[in-house]
Amino acid sequence: MYFEQKGLTPKKIMDAKKEKIDSRTAWELLQTRKRVHIGKGKRVFSLDTDAAHKEEILSAVMGRSGNLRAPAIKTKRAFFIGYNDEIYGAQ
Q1: What are the backbone angles phi and psi of residue 83, rounded to the nearest 5°?
Q2: Which helix (H) or strand (E) holds 70?
Q3: Rounded Cα gap, residues 70 and 67, in angstroms
Q4: Around Cβ 76, how many Cβ atoms within 10 Å?
Q5: pLDDT in tens, 22-57
Q6: Cβ atoms within 10 A of the Cβ of 17, count?
């Protein structure tokens, strides 16, 4: 709904229940962008996707099942992982 309201169309949609992304694959994906923005509950934080932040990033973006948390959105410059009203501009 958010994306339609903003006039955005995703290039690819994956079903997180069917297509699992483990921590090794998640890290490879995240390194394709310079920054990751993570929403966890009411908290939002951003980190550079460099080796110095690897463990902190992975502990925040991986779910209890060992898969990448959803939603996970890749833009031209960054990744957005998890949901938080601030990240998506909800009022």
Answers
A1: -115, 140
A2: none
A3: 9
A4: 5
A5: 999 999 999 999 999 999 888 899 999 999 999 999
A6: 9
Residue 39, burial from CB neighbour count under 10 angstroms (0-12, 13-18, 19+): buried
**CA angle 49-7-91, nearest 5°?**
75
Q: Rounded to whole angstroms, how far apart are CA atoms 78 and 47?
A: 10
Alpha-carbon distance 88 to 68, whole Å? Answer: 19
How does residue 91 score in pLDDT terms, banded at 50, 70 and 90? very low
Phi, psi of 69 (to 5 degrees): -65, 150
Those residues whose C-beta lies under 8 Å from the C-beta of residue 19, and which sit 6 or more positions away, are none
Q: What is the value of pTM for the model shown?
A: 0.83
